Amino acid sequence: MRDDINKRVWKSYVWHGDQCFFISTIERTFGTYGGPVRGLETLVWKYDWDKNYRGEWIGQAGGLADHHKICRSLIDTGAMPEEKE
Questions:
Q1: What is the residue extent of each domain of the chain?
Q2: Which of 25, 31, 32, 52 could form a disulfide with 67 if both were Cys (CB 3.0 to 4.6 A apart)?
C-alpha cells in the first residue's frame, strides 16, 4: 500500500434531536521531523442530512477510542466532549 493514500477506517452519522453530525476516522500519513508516520485522525462536521451536505467543521481527534467518545457525546449532549466539560 502506498503510504500517501488515506484509508477509510470508520464513518458515522449520529443525531442529537434534529441535528445530524458526520464523524470520519481515516488512516493517513503525518509528516514529522523524523519522517512520515501513519496514524489515525478523526474529523467531525455538522451535517445536513436532507441536502446530503457536510457543513461546519467542529473538531478533530485521534483514533478509534476518540471516534467512539465523540459519537457518544454528540448523541447524548449535541456537543463535542471537551465542550461539555
A1: 7-84
A2: 25
